[in-house]
Amino acid sequence: MKKLGLIALVIAGILLASCAPAPAPECPECPPAPECPPVGPTTDLGGREVRMATENLYPPFNFIDDAGEAVGWDYDVGRRICEILNCEAVFVETPWEGLFEAMSAGENDVAFDGITITLARSMKIDYSDPYVEYGQVIMVQEDDDRPALADEESFVASDLNIGTQIGTTNEITAMKLVGEDRIVSFDTYDLPFVALEAGDVDSVIIDEVAAIG
User: Fold this and answer.
1) Which residues pair with 206 in a beta bridge?
2) What is the pLDDT of residues 24-64, one digit of tens each?
3) pLDDT, tens digit, for every residue of 60-73?
């Protein structure tokens, strides 16, 4: 069962949104330089630090690997952006709860955390262009063959619960699907899966790309 949405890089102010490089126009018939348009970005941040908030709990975008290192797509892209714009990427581990308030207060410059575009959030922060389109899915134990898990209609009609992270669009979707009484919300993104493995919840709702990760 899926619900389409968008996850996007969250930007405080217009720092990276306004400075992202655009493809240089082709200029086969231009006169010799310097009259041709410059190639590549012209923004130079002068080596300044750019604080990038991430939760480190959202694979494959950001997570702690087996060696204890913070890795993922967000780290790779954040560093690459700073290579292009001449800045230093400083990653700040930030809890999901309060992330948007910290952004709007200027505590961090950018948030990389698989953040869905919503109207309410856009009232507090600015977004880059969206970079991933995804669906939401419900995960269950592989060997769980209860009839209520056979299809969406059966699941909605049952009394089975859904684990999710508080304050996420996954939680909002779960509430629309089965109602608040059947939702078990956790503070961090990993805890619903711990609960699912332990049998403390019947299912978990999650972004499809993160489910694969």
Assistant:
1) 137
2) 445 555 555 556 665 666 789 999 999 999 999 888 889 99
3) 889 999 999 999 99
For residues 3 and 6, give the distance between their C-alpha atoms in angstroms, rounded to a whole number: 10
Task: Return d(Cα 148, Cα 155) in angstroms, integer.
Answer: 5
Return d(Cα 99, Cα 154) in angstroms, integer.
36
Look-up: residue for tokens 């919840």? 201
Q: How far is CA 169 from CA 46, 56, 83, 121, 158, in A?
A: 37, 18, 32, 11, 22
Give me the residues paired with residue 63 across strands. 57, 71
| Domains along the chain with CATH numbers | 5-24+34-134 (3.40.190.10), 136-212 (3.40.190.10)
DSSP category for residue 170: H
DSSP state of 3: -
